[in-house]
Recover the amino acids of this structure.
């Protein structure tokens, strides 16, 4: 029992560190994009102010239990994703519960948050909720296809579904990273990341042009605070997952920040350079080249390591 309490305490530390890092990262990215567009932008610590401000408010509006469970499920998906992957390889504090789950469980947690928000929005009563749910889940399915193929390729290559074992297999030098041993899988996964981060041109759900509608206005007070907190944790968790699977993991916090920052700059650069897609254009994009590259990654892994 005492061992599990210690591991639980370490997990809380990991969640707090990921939340702080994710909030700061979102502020830095927002300010960077503002500079690209010729604006000053928000302070990098604005995310902390927003979360505390919304958490202190209350609302008398009620749409039903499921509506307000949406942000709770979303937060549970982000925390669950983080807790079953190692933030730092070989670290007792930041190892989390990597021994209790594998990459399939992590993918389920990623899906859990999206489905929770869809169920919550369906009870909101807004006439455009069904449209938003349809667009969101359709694009989610599209960009998850190449990511799932990349995961299958890694499972064949490393003969395991354990994220920790995949990180361990990449130790010993840069040449052992998946980036160099299976570049097709990394390419498919990075193209999938463009959709999962929600930046242009794939911001078909909740883009800046639709601020007057959607979760940002329908969820008030502490519920929007939970959503913003999850946004930070989920972003950090996905970056750590990509770092573990494709870029050799990290053994210290400095290495973690450098690698995750470099990974995050890919969708940021694309978002700053390309205009927004329609939902049909987005789906066609992900089901075309990224999916074909993912299939090629599976074939390459089976040929070389199967």
């Amino acid at each position: 029992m005492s061992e599990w309490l210690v591991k639980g305490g370490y997990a809380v530390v990991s969640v707090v560190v990921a939340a702080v890092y994710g909030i700061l990262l979102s502020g830095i990215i927002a300010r960077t994009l503002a500079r690209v567009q010729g604006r000053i932008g928000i302070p990098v610590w604005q995310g902390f102010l927003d979360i505390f401000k919304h958490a202190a408010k209350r609302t008398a509006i009620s749409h039903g239990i499921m509506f307000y469970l949406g942000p709770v499920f979303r937060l549970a998906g982000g925390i669950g994703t983080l807790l079953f992957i190692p933030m730092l390889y070989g670290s007792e504090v930041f190892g989390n519960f990597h021994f209790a789950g594998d990459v399939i469980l992590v993918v389920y947690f990623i899906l859990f948050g999206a489905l929770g928000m869809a169920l919550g929005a369906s009870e909101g009563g807004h006439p455009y909720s069904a449209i938003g749910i349809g667009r969101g889940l359709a694009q989610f399915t599209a960009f998850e296809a190449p990511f799932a193929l990349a995961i299958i390729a890694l499972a064949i290559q490393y003969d395991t579904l354990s994220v920790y074992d995949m990180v361990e297999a990449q130790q010993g030098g840069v040449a052992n990273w998946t980036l160099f041993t299976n570049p097709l899988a990394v390419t498919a996964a990075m193209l999938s990341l463009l959709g999962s981060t929600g930046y242009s041109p794939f911001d078909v759900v909740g883009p800046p042009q639709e601020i007057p509608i959607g979760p940002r206005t329908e969820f008030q007070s502490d519920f929007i605070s939970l959503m913003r907190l999850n946004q930070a944790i989920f972003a950090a968790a996905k970056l750590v997952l990509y770092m573990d699977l494709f870029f050799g993991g990290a053994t210290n916090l400095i290495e973690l920040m450098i690698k995750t920052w470099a990974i995050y700059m890919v969708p940021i650069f694309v978002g700053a350079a390309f205009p927004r897609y329609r939902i049909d254009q987005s789906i066609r994009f992900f089901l075309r080249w990224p999916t074909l590259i993912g299939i090629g990654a599976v074939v390459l892994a089976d040929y070389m390591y199967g």
